[in-house]
Amino acid sequence: xxxxxxEQNILLERGExxxxxxxxxxxxxxxxxxxxxxxxxxxxGCDVGCHWCDVKESWDASIHPLTSVKEIAEKASMYPAKxxxxxxxxxxxxxxxxxCDTLKAQGIRIFLETSGAxxxxxxxxxxxxxxxxxxxxxxxxxxxxxxxxxxxxxxxxFSWAEEHAVNIRMxxxxxxxxxxxxxxQLMPEIVEYVKSNPQWQISLQTHKYMHIP
Length: 213
What we know:
CATH topology: TIM Barrel
Number of domains: 1
Structural class: alpha/beta
Oligomer: single chain
CATH architecture: Alpha-Beta Barrel
Strand content: 15-25%
Radius of gyration: 17 Å
Shape: globular
Order of helices and strands: HEEEHEHEEHEHEHEH
CATH class: Alpha Beta
């Protein structure tokens, strides 16, 4: 990140402070844990660059304040649901070990949402890998995933999904999720695909239907 002091760079490298875009308490809207209350921690910084990304403001880490993991964890612990979702941006750009250790010490379960493009750091109760064509996932990340969630933007994404499904564990959940702007167009095809390939399930962005963050 540009414009950081030497001390701030050291904290960032150690994972003791992270660029925090936003944090909020809400309902998980996607994938296996849909419907559960959770505290979301969204980190700034992403070089994957999906053109349909709905949080492009997360891409530039330098515009988001470097925040100590102690402060982040203290806020997370204030809420009834002892569950945190770490997302981005791409959170694995950073060393997440200190943040995970601090949250775990407070009895908080930790869920990760990542493209899988970077090495894993930290300890998690649930890992969701959502691979992107613009910067593909690492095989070792796919092998550790609890959930594979593929965003379907066009018909070619079905074969893209299958390419990565061969690298996940048998217990890993398979999800196909329509890209929001094309949901009505793609849903019939996704439904037929899941009916023919029942190892897959459909994930919807239910938080958008509920009009919550």
